Each structure stands twice: as C-alpha cells, then as structure tokens.
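Reviewer 2 asked us to include a model.

Predict the structure of this chain.
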Amino acid sequence: MDPVRVVVLGGGTAGWMTAAALATLLPRARCTVRLVESEQIGTVGVGEATLPQMRAFNDAIGIIEADMMRRTNATFKLGIEFVDWGVAGSAYIHPFGAYGRPMGGVGFHHHWQRAAAAGKAGPLERYSLAVAACRAGRFDFPDTDLTSIQSTYDYAYHFDAGLYAGYLRELAEGRGVTRIEGKFVQVLREAEDGGVAGIRMESGNVVPGDLFVDCTGFRSAVTGEALGVAWEDWSQWLPCDRAWAVQSERLETVPPYTRSIAREAGWQWQIPLQHRTGNGYIYSSAFMDDDAARETLLANLPTPAIMEPRSIRFQAGRREHSWTRNCVAVGLASGFLEPLESTSIYLIQMAVMHLIALFPTRPDDAVLAAEFNRRMDVEYDRIRDFLILHYHANRRDEPFWRHCRDMAVPDSLAEKIALFRHRGSVPRYGEGLFSPPSWVSVLFGQGLEPRAVHPLAEAMPMSELDAWLVAIRSEVAAGVSGMSEHDAFVSDYGEWGI
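Predicted model (structure tokens):
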C-alpha cells in the first residue's frame, strides 16, 4: 500500500506542530508530509501560554525540555491569576493542581466549605501548593511520590510562539518533512466526491495530495472557503471580538503564572517570558471603540512597550465539522476560542493527536472522520462552557459585564452552575478539559457559593477537621519554602539544554 500523501497548508504553530507530530509518530511507509507556507503571510502568533498537556506533546515527539525552553525564551507556568473578575480588587489563581486532598468520598472543597462556614478554614488558595508557589514566585518539578504534597500540581510553559514554530520546523524537516515556499491560489477539487485533489501555487505548480490539513488560520481557506463548511457563531456567549497585542520589556521578576486582568469591556493578558512580556487587551467592540481599547492597553502595561500594538479581529465559534471529506482543519482554521484559559495550542495538540490516533488508510474514511469530529466537538464544547463561566459569574458594574452576567448561557453550563449552587457539585469529565479543581477555582474565586454542604463532608468531627486543615496548610507552606526562586530556576535550567 502506498503511503498517504499529507499536505499541510500553512505554517505557524498549528502547521509545524502537525508536521512534526506526523513525521515523528507515523512511519514513513504510512505517510509522507509536505508543508506549504509563504514567508509573506504572517501568523497570529500570540499563543504564548500553554496548558500542562503541552508537556505530553513535547515528550511524544522527542523534544528535550531544557533545550526547548532555552531556544524559545520560555518560563514555567503553574496557573493563571484572575484579577478583578469577581469584583474590583479581587484576585484568585486557577492552579494547575489540586486543593488539599479528597476525604470520605467527596472532594476537598466540600470539607473546606464546611469549615469556612464555621470561620475555621481561611482562604481556599492556602490549600493549593501551586497557588502558594505562584504567590511566592517559586518553582520546582513535581514529585513522583504520590503521597507527597509536592506531587499535587503540574506545570506548563510560557514561550515565544514564533520561536517555538521555528524550533518545530527544524525538527520536522530533520525528520523528512518537505517545506514548499509560496502562496497557493486555488484549491483543486475531485470531480467525483468533491474532495480536495491538490492546490495550485502562485507559480502555477500543482501540489497533489491524499489528505490535506488546513492550518490557514482565521481564513480557513480549504475548510471554510473551498469546502464551504458552515461556521457556528458563539459570540452570543463570548462577545469579545477584537484585541490589541503588544510586546513590552521583560519584567524585573518573572512570575510562574499568566495574569488576566478584567477591564471595562474585556480583559488584559500578561505573559512573562525570559526576554520580554506578552500583553494584549481582548474586548468587545460593541462596548468600547478601538482607539479607547488601544489606549487602555498602553496605559496599563507593566513595562515599557517595545513595538507598536497590532490589531486582531475575530469571532468566537467553530466550524461545524473539523474533518470534511479528505481535509482536516487544525487550529484557527477549525475554530477560535479566546485565550482566556490558554486553550488555543491545546486545541491544536488535541486535533493533531486525534488525527494520528485515527489516521486513515484511505483519506475519505467517513467512520474515522465522524469519530474525529465527535472528539473535537467534546473538546470545543467543554472549553466553551468554562470560558463563558468566567464572564457570566462576574459581579462588576460596567455595561459589558452586566450584559455578560444577564445573558442566557448554554443549557450545559446552566446545569453545571445549578448543581454547584445546590450542593457544591463540579464536573468530572472522562474526555476534554477541565478537571474539578479548575471549576472549583473559578466558581469560588468569582464568588459563587453552594447553598448546602455535602452530607459526606459532615462525618468528621469539627475538631478533627480543623486539625486536618491546619496540617495541610503546614504541608503547603513547607513545600513552598523548599522550592527555588522561579527566575533562578529558569536561568539554571536553561543551561542544561546547551
């Protein structure tokens, strides 16, 4: 059987993640990979914050972490701080890790809630090692001993997305990927089933293929334009539609977390790298004009800007199908969910890994395509609900935030909120993001509270519960005290990759 000829259309993070993974994880007898891109076409390139799942992707394709961090000016990430999302002056951290430990058949937050109602618990974040490390600006690798408090967290990265794409390009080309420079001007269709036969380049050359991966960004040149796959508009729930992005000088002390700061008509991100800081203001044009948003961003930078801000326009939503005929859309060509929880690169990763798991022997395998689409539907829907929660569960008083608080939300999210309010229940998924501690952090962090304590959390006498909570707080404090300063750890670790 001849290998499947895969053509990846577009570079950037999505294109080179796809090419590198296919070339590494599938034998050459199974597929050949060519990637078409033009140096004249830029990429969005602001996806600089990741989730812990990124580590599994890097490991799978044989990336040495220390080398990658040095080459991409990366820092470590233990969570995301949300400032002013509940009310002005509030702040909480969504950690990549657990709160305390489960006990008596229920999650830790149920026991904490019971103690908090009696005035004996203190803030929830005191029971998370990841949060405590963020607050202290410290980092160390998690322990493999699952009985240790040091095993209760995970980590991700902040990196320069352009440098990461270049790093993957070097890796992919070294593993047999052929790069074709130039613009393509036409998608050639099969006469029989309407699939893609090839693409015509600006030069007139034709690049044929069996399976095409659309990494053309917001344009969605193959999936959207050529194949006509409809767009599902989710802006009724995620009303932000524009962003200004700008780079600024390096922070004096680089923290191990991303910051998300609520503003009048949206939110501002701060992503700390070794050499600079990534910044942006995502906002709704229905509630703020472009000039005002630009000035808001520039007036609130943590360090002086080192470039002119650039404008990005978008619409929240996704294509109805990611795999159509013999074309698979990956990244922005498939959909866009704003980077509030750093999910953009995660969605690329999952699309690539699902494609590899379901890689066809013939490109028009409708059964495999249907399963791929089902899996991606789950990923998008889970993330969509979690992002909407941040907006909906606010207590701010500006028109934009009142709109978000008053808007109708998807039934799937309304049910989750109702269950939490009733007795503290949080989602536990078998597929997709996010885990129970993620929901706990946002629900409690933005001021939602259950009306009742779970009965299973009432079995422990209050005196024992109090002592147990004191012991966990002590473990967290001791764990953080043994960690290194994040800046120093990154500096030392980068030398390992040389």
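The chain has three domains: 4-48+160-233+316-364, 99-156+385-485, 242-313. The mean pLDDT is 94. We have added this to the supplementary material.
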